[in-house]
Write a structure and sequence with these properties.
The chain has four helices and no strands. The two termini are about 30 Å apart.
Length: about 150
């Protein structure tokens, strides 16, 4: 069975996107734990700083590896789009977790446990990762316009 070239390219880009995302997640967790447990920082401040460090990695990794073949409009424009997409996706993820917790609480009649909360969080992550990939692919690191 011959796989179409377009699908092969999409799988390649998607695979690189997932590698960059996995590395960014590891960086965020490592920085968070370093700040909280080694240097004694406040957890909320640590989360913000760790997220920003991971976001820098995600931008560089996606710009220079995942979408390196894409058109390079102005860096400022691209960076603003990247930050906007990530802000929107973060808010969507938080909203999905909130909705999931509210729905589970309404169904079972009490607060959700750790397992249920983690399942809701995982579902939100999957949805947001798919949306983020589409937005990076179509908006942030879009290809050159067709002539």
């Amino acid at each position: 069975m011959k796989i179409p070239a377009r699908l092969r390219r999409l799988v390649g880009v998607g695979s690189r996107f997932l590698v960059v995302g996995a590395l960014s997640t590891v960086i965020e967790i490592a920085v968070f734990n370093l700040l909280v447990f080694v240097w004694g920082w406040d957890p909320v401040l640590s989360k913000i700083v760790a997220s920003l460090v991971a976001l820098v990695n995600a931008y560089i990794g996606n710009r220079e590896w995942t979408f390196r073949h894409r058109d390079r409009r102005g860096r400022v424009s691209e960076l603003l789009l990247f930050l906007g997409v990530n802000l929107a996706c973060t808010l969507l993820g938080a909203a999905l977790v909130w909705l999931g917790v509210e729905a589970l609480t309404a169904i079972v009649g009490h607060a959700t446990g750790a397992l249920a909360l983690n399942v809701v969080n995982l579902v939100s992550i999957v949805i947001v990762v798919l949306l983020r990939f589409v937005l990076y692919h179509k908006v942030v690191f879009r290809g050159a316009p067709a002539n």
